Amino acid sequence: MSLDELSALIARHARPDQRTPIDGVLVSKVERPHPPSPSMSGTVLALIVQGAKRIALGERVYEYRAGQYLVASVDLPITGHFTEASPERPALGFGLTLHPASIAELLLQAAPGDLPPPGGGTPSGMAVSSAPDELLDAAVRLLRLLDRPRDLTVLAPLVKREILWRVVAGEQGAVVRQLGLADSSLSHIARAVRWIRDHYTQSFRVDDVAQLAGMSASAFYRNFQAVTAMSPIQFQKQIRLQQARLLLATHPNDVTGVGQRVGYDSPSQFSREYRRQFGTPPSQDAARLRGSTSDTAPAALV
């Protein structure tokens, strides 16, 4: 019954921008499948309440559907789309932004033995699991507050905290817990990810970014691939090409200029890598995108 009530609540409250009056909580309603589109994942819990979605991260593909959730513990370049959606049965989603400080606070307050022991190795930056009943029930109670504005300010933070605890203590908790640990390998990789994202137009040496992350070059490379499913250079290329596609939607007649703005010195290399990523050369893709930005809108996880 939780999914049924969640569906009704989301259908009633969903807006085009996905925002709600509850800070960090998103709900979405999509009435038709769209072509796969690139975006950044953010750090988020994304629960599918109706329909199904497919996310590609490098060579990894994550599929989740009604009753399943995806967690992203690092802001990663993804390509995603809903695979099941129609006006009669739209895809419906619930999302909660994950903040490291909130996770760290939960970890500090948990009693010894409340959480499973840490596993070995660095977890992927994304994972999918089936949502337990307790998590679905908490999501229902949180969205019910949208109909009770008087209660929202006091109760919403408490229910959000419960949802976060269900995830931290759940099957994919290891992925989320590292987000709250200041010295975890994932936090070091997240620091490097932010640097590359902020300086994507610049060339860099992997050894220098490893030093910035506080890791040896070999450990950095190994952990970066474990978290992002890409090498640092492939990650930078994904960011460049995603940004180029967004720019081409508004500057379709300046393919060479767009390539230079995102860091490509060679127009031929830009065209070759763009075509490999999106299936068509940038000039043809720009012509198709002209007059419509629907394919380049951010593809939020929920």
UniProtKB/TrEMBL annotation:
| Keyword Transcription listed | yes
Q: Which InterPro entries match?
A: Homeodomain-like_sf, HTH_AraC, HTH_AraC-typ_CS, Tscrpt_reg_HTH_AraC_N
Q: Keywords of this protein's UniProt record, alphabetized? A: DNA-binding, Transcription, Transcription regulation
PROSITE patterns in the cross-refs: HTH_ARAC_FAMILY_1, HTH_ARAC_FAMILY_2
UniProt name for this protein? AraC family transcriptional regulator
Q: Does the keyword Transcription feature in the UniProt annotation?
A: yes
Q: What species is given as this protein's source?
A: Plantactinospora mayteni
Q: According to the UniProt record, where is the region Disordered? A: 275-302
Q: Cross-referenced Pfam families, in alphabetical order?
A: AraC_N, HTH_18
> Gene3D superfamilies from the xrefs?
Homeodomain-like (1.10.10.60)
Taxonomic superkingdom: Bacteria
